[in-house]
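Q: My collaborator sent me two sequences in one message, no labels, and asked for predicted structures for both. Can we handle them in order? The first one she listed is below.
A: Yes, handling them in the order given. First sequence, followed by its C-alpha cells:
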Amino acid sequence: MMRLPSFRYYAPSSVKEASRILAQEGPDAKIVAGGTDLFPNMKRRHQTPKTLVSLRRIRELRGISGSPVEGVRIGSCTTLADVITDPTITRSYRALAHAAGVVSTPLLRNMGTIGGNICLDTRCNYYDQNWEWRRAIRFCLKCEGDTCWVAPSSDTCLAVNSSDTAPLLFALGATVHLVSHDGERELLVREMYRKDGIHYLTKRSQEILTEIRLPAANGWTASYVKLARRGAFDFPVLGVAAVIRRDGDGTITDAKIVFNAVASCPVEAVGGQERLIGRKLSEELILEAAAASAGPARPMDNTDFPLEWRKKMARVYAARALREHLR
C-alpha cells in the first residue's frame, strides 16, 4: 500500500492568510485544493513537500459570477462538478462545461477544482509509476534522475500537459488572476505554460491562482474533443480545442485551434487557424484546415497508444473539433 509522507498541514480561511503562510514556509510548501492530482503524486514520492497549504476553507475562491455579456469569473476552487452544472456555463460556455465534464470520473470531479486542472502536473509513462518501478530504470529527468527516457539525448523533460480545460481556456483568451505575499498579477491562460515538463508553469510556487476570467460570449463558438482509451477516468492522449468568431454573413474573422497532450504545454496550430480566416466554414475547408493544423502536433512516445497512430489522429480530431461548428 502506498502511503502519504509526513507533512505539516495548514487550512487558512483567507487568501491573505494563505499567502502569508506560503511566504513563511518557502519552497518546501505546496498548495492543495481538491488534492486529486497532488496526493497520488505524493504517495508515489513524485513530490514530498514538508508543508501543505489547503485552499478548501477559503470561500472567496469558490463560485461563478458575472454574465455572458460582460464576461464570467470562476473561482479557482470551484469544483469541476459545479462548473458542469452552472446555468451560465452550460448555456453560454457549453464547450467549457463539456471539457470539464470529460475530466476523470464523477467522484473525482466532485473533489477536483478548475484551478487544479489548469495547474495539473505533466504526465509521462516513465514518470507516473511508483517509486520502486522508477528506481528500476534509474529514475527519470523529471524526478530524481538525469535522463529523459522518452528521448535520452534531450536535456529537457518531455512530459506532457494533460489538462482538459487548459486548451479551451487558451483558445478562448481566458485570463487567470494570481496573488502572492508580494502582490498580484494577471496572465492570459496561454501565458501560464512553458515547454518544459518539469518547470511547466510560469506561475510561481508561492502564487495562488484565485480566479479564471472568461471573455464575453458574443460572436464566437467553441468546441473541445478528446482522445483517450476509455470514455471516463483516463487523461487525454490528444485534446483539440477550436474557437471560431464569425461576422453576420458567416465569414470567419478569427479562429484558434489548440492541441493538448502532444507537448509539455498547449500547442497553437497557427497554420490551420490562418486557413480559416476570411472564409466560410465547409467540409472542404475543415479538411484543409485540419491538415494544416496537424503539423505542430508532434506527440512523443510517452503516453497511451502507438506513436504513429496518435500522429495521424491529430488531423482527424482537429477536423472533429471544427465540425462541431457546423451544427
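Q: And the one she listed second?
A: Here it is, processed independently of the first:
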Amino acid sequence: MTVLLVVLAFSFAWSIGSHYTGACMGMPYALGAISARRALLLMAPLALLGAALLSGKVAQTVGEHLVDGQPTTLAEVLIVGVAFGVTAVYNRLRIPTSTIQILVGSVAGVAVGASLGVHWRTIGTLLVIWVAAPFVAAALGFAAAHAFARATGGDRALVVVGCCASFAMGANDVALASGALVGAGVLSPHRAGILCGVGIALGVLITGRPLLDRIAFDVVEINRPTAIAAQSVQAVVVLVAVVSGYFTSMNQALVGGMAGARPSAVHRRTLLGIVRGWVAGPPASFVLALVAALLGRWVGGADALAR
C-alpha cells in the first residue's frame, strides 16, 4: 500500500506540473518573449527548486493540519487518488482549475467518511484566503499595471516574471501531492517535496504543452505591461501564502491580477467556464472521496482509514 501511495503521489505531482504550465509561462509564450520549448525547459527546474526549498510548511499543513488523528496509508491513497482523478479530467478537457481546492475537498470527504475530525478552522482560513486572493490580486494588478504602463519592450522582464511564477508554483502546489506522504509518515516534508518536485518537473516537460497553449491563446488577450503586472502579482500573492504555511490558487491569483491590470484582457465566456470549473471541482472531489471512504470502511472495517 505504501508503494501505491508513492506512485499515486508522484503521478498526481506530474499532473499538477502539466496543469500549471499556462498559469506560469502562458503569457511570455503568448507574447513571443520565449518559445514553448524554452518556456517548459525553464519552468521545470524552477518548479523543482521551489518544491525542494520552500514547500515544507505547506506540506505540513496538508499532511498534518487538515484533519484530527492520523489517516492510514489507505486513507491517503484514497485522498490522492480522487484528487488525481478529478485533476486529470480537467487536464483532459483543457480547463484550468484549482488543484488546491480539489485536494482539500478530497481530504474533507475522506475524513468525514472515515469519522476523522476535520480541522474546519484551518479549512475556513483557507477559504478566506481563496476568496480574498483574486480580489487582492486584482487591486495589486491595477497598481502594478500603472507602474508598468510605459513598458514597451520587456521580453526579458516577461520571462523573469514567468520564472518567478514557476518557482512559486513548485513551492505552493507540490504539497498537494507530497502532503499525503508526510501525513502517512512515509517521507519527511523536505524529501517528499523533492520527490514530488521531480514529478512536477516531468509533467511540465512531457505533458505540459496543451495547457500552455490554452492559457496563451484561448483565455486572454494581453499586452506586455498587463502581462508583467499580472504575473508579478501572481508570484507575490502565492509566495506570501506559502511563507505563511498556507496555499492558494495559481490560476485565481493570475486571473485576478489580469482583471485588475486590464479587465478587457479576459475573455468573459472562457472565464465563465473556468469559474464553473472552480465551483464544481471541490464538491465533486468531496463527494467522490466520501463515497470512496465509505466503501473502504465497508470492505476493510472501521479501522481501515484511521489509526
